Amino acid sequence: MHRHGSYPRYQKPRGGERFAMERYVCLPCGHTVSVLPVNRLPYRPLEVERLEGHFDAQAGTRTGLDPPPELIEAGCLQRAWKRFLTRVDPLKDVFGQILPAGLQTAQQLWKQLRRAVGSAEDILRFLAQQGKRSLLGDYACLRPAPERSRGSGLDCGARPGPLPPG
């Protein structure tokens, strides 16, 4: 992989501030990859620490965020929790025996994830490395590149092939 540039992404839910999202390209197959910083979530302008604080509050292990979220951030955090509510079974499948049996609710799952794995950053790292998933969704960006027929090369890690046109 070689550095291929970057593109701007919003730092906070209210917009304004941005950070550079680094991009890389596989020279043999032309597949590009963006590398998400460890304190960011895929497709959401939230910082992992703020999400962790909000989820801790939802699970009853913490009283809330300090400072309290502004209106737009509060909406983003609420939507993230609502999405997490739909992810109990898929996440239990990924974590398997790391978690105790019998977890039924998102609150129970979050408490056990924090006990067993650690911080939200640790949870996200585990999901990306072990399950090719994320906390709030199974995004295409976390899956391996699809196999492509390009002469003698298939995809990243395969035999070298020509770059795609353009």
Describe this structure in words.
This protein has a domain at 41-139. The protein is built from 5 helices and 5 strands. It has helices at 48-58, 71-85, 88-95, 106-116, 120-131, and strands at residues 2-10, 18-25, 32-35, 40-41, 44-47. The protein has a 3-stranded antiparallel sheet, with no helix packed on it. The longest helix is centred in the middle third of the chain and has 15 residues, at 71-85. The model is unreliable at 149-155 and 158-166 (pLDDT under 50).
Based on the model shown, name its key terms.
single chain, 166 residues, alpha+beta, three-stranded antiparallel beta sheet, two-stranded antiparallel ribbon, 5 helices, 34% helix, 16% strand, flat, disordered C terminus
In short:
This protein has a domain at 41-139. It is of the alpha+beta class and 166 residues long. Helices cover 34% and strands 16% of the residues.
